[in-house]
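Z., the sequence and structure:
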Amino acid sequence: MTEWHASEELWDGVGEIIFTPERMKAADGEVEQVLKLADVPPKSRVLDAACGPGRHSLAFARRGHSVTGVDQTGSYLEKARASAAEEGLHIEWVHGDLCTFRREAAFDLTVNLLTSFGYYDDPADDRRAAENFLAGLLPGGRLVIDVMGKEVLARIFRPRDWHETPDGAMVLEERTIADDWRRIAVRWITIRGGERREHRFGHRIYSAAELCGLLTDVGFVDLRVYGSLAGAPYNHEAERLVVVGTKQ
C-alpha cells in the first residue's frame, strides 16, 4: 500500500496552502540563518532533502553554493526547475525519496526543513533516512533538521482551527494526537470557489531527546539543539525544534 506522503494528488492539493507567497519570500532569510547556525563555508555542496518547490535550494544557489534538491513530488520539482531557469541558477534536481536517495560523501551540508521528517509509517524508515543523511556528508559536514518539536506542539496544540489563504480559499484543519503522543493525524478541508476538497495526512512527532537519540544512534556527533533557525534556545518559548549534527 502506498503511504500518504507518496501521493502527488495530495501535495498538489495542499501546495498553495503550505507554500504561500510569504513563506516563499522567507526562504532567503531562513537560509542566511542556516548558514550561520551551521557555520557553512562559501561555495559548499548542499543537499536540500525534501526540497519541495525549491525555495531553499534557490536561496542557497543564489549565494554561490552547489545545490542538489531532492523531492518525491514531480510537480514541485517542475516548479523548482522553472524558477531556477528563470534566475539562471544551476541546480541538480532529483526525483527521489529520502529513504532511498543516498550519495556517499558528497555534501558539506544537508538540510531537512519545515517538518519534512517523520512521514514514514515504519520508524525504521526514519532511521534509514537519517543514515542516508549521514552517509551523504563529507567528514565535518553538518545536518540541519527543523521540525515541530513534541514539546512545542504540546504547548500550542489546538484540535481545530481555520484560516483564509491569500487567494481567498478557506482552510479548515483538524488535528488529533495518536499513538500515545508518537504521531499527529491531520485533516484539511479546503473550500475554494465553491469546490470542497479534503486531505488527510499524519507524521511522527519527535521530542528533542528522541530526535537527538536517533541522530546519535546513526552516528552524528556534536548535536546542538535550538528553538528556531535563528538559534534561540530550546525552552518553553521555542517556536521549532532545530537540531544541528556533525559527521566525524
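Residues 21-37 form the longest helix (17 residues). The mean pLDDT is 94.

Let me know what you think.
H.
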